[in-house]
Structures are given as structure tokens and as C-alpha cells.
Amino acid sequence: MRNLGKGATIQSVATKEGLPIRVVQLNVTEERSINDAIHSIKSDVGKIDVLVNNAGYGLNGAFEDLAMEEIKAQYETNLFGVIRVTQAVLPIMRKQKSGIIVNISSGAGRFGYPGGSAYVSTKFAIEGLSESMAYELEPFGIRVVLVEPGVIKTNFVNSIVAAKKSQDPNSPYAQLMQNVATSFQHMIEGGSSTDVVAKVVLKAVTSENPTLRYLAGNDVETWIEGKKSMSDEEFYKMMKENLMT
Fold first, then answer.
1. pTM
2. Catalytic residues
3. What tens digit of pLDDT does each residue of 210-228 get?
4. How far apart are CA 146 and CA 144, in angstroms?
């Protein structure tokens, strides 16, 4: 965890259930923190079987309203954080000739939506990164998996960052962003539970032959099916009707 002070809940569950869980400090934007955590784990147990890259947050705002600093911060966590942690773990997995890397992407790694250009582009990057890595790592007994959740009821929603300019009521995109926020709120109310994603991750890491991609949530399954069966123009129209009106 980046902030160990927030670890009380998971430690309480671990104690109650008798689970051998140890929480280690790790900030994906700091190389020293990453290296210290990986070294600590390797020293304690001698190997690393599974890496789940789950750290991330959403930056909302029309592209023109995004400050470069806000975009860079989004990429530091969502993309470069994945790169840093994965590169720190790979030498260990290569040496043991086994391992599985699970990158938590998103349905938004397969299609865009208004107000999500920064977040969506990090997830598109995760998709391409993971596909390329899969070829390189398979000869070393290491598998790469993408998990693509839809709308999930988690604290992720509470940590969404709104671009500063997008909060200005005089922004030319103010009405669009308001419409998107209203539509997204309805989606959250019907979103899937965290158990859905947890079960998909467990299925992937315990499978003898995991596939490259796993969808997590009925909504994302519907979207991806639509993306496959519709023309780009048809899908674009559907997204506009669902999110912008």
C-alpha cells in the first residue's frame, strides 16, 4: 500500500480469517519505494509468483481543459507505475522460470468516452504494453493477463480527479461534462461488485493456460460485444446517446 495508515481494514480481515497477509509500503511513482518492497518480499519468501498491477485513478475533463501537469500525473500512476513495478519483478520471475503478471486495464482500454481522454489513453497504453510483453515473456514461463473491468462499485469512484479547468462553469465543455457525470452516476448505481473482479483475477492466476484478456462485469461484456458487432459510426452514436444526452 502507498499509505500504510489505511491498512487497518485488510489487516483486520486477515487476522479474522487467519490469512497469511502482510502489508508492505509501496508507492508506484517512486522507484526506491518499489525496489525496497520487492527486495523485502523476495528476502522473506524467496520468490514472486503473481504480480497484480492494480494502482490507478481516473482523471476526468475534456481534453482541452486538461493541464499538462494533470496528464503527466495520470500517466505516472496508471502507466509508468505499471512499468516500474513490472520491470522490478521480471528478473525474479525470469530466474525462477515462472510467474504471472495481471494488469488491471479497463473496458476503457478498448474504447474511448467523452471526458476520459487522459484515463482512457493510459488504459489503451496498458493494452498495447501487455500484448507486446506477452510475446517476450512466454519463453521464460511468464504469462501476461489483462483484466478489463466495467463500472465497479469501489473507492475508485471517490478518488476520481476532476481537471481544474473542467470545474469552471464557463468552460465550453461544462454542459457536456455535466451530462457525462449524470450518466456515469446512473452507471455506478448499477455497477458490479468488487467480487466480480476478484473472482476474475483468481480465475486467471489459477488457470493452467490463462487467456490474454478477461472481461469483468456484465456492462463491459455488453459494450465489447457492441464494439465487435457495430461499425465505428454505430458505436460512436450509441455512446453519444448513452453519455451525452
1. 0.93
2. 105, 119, 123
3. 999 999 998 999 999 999 9
4. 7
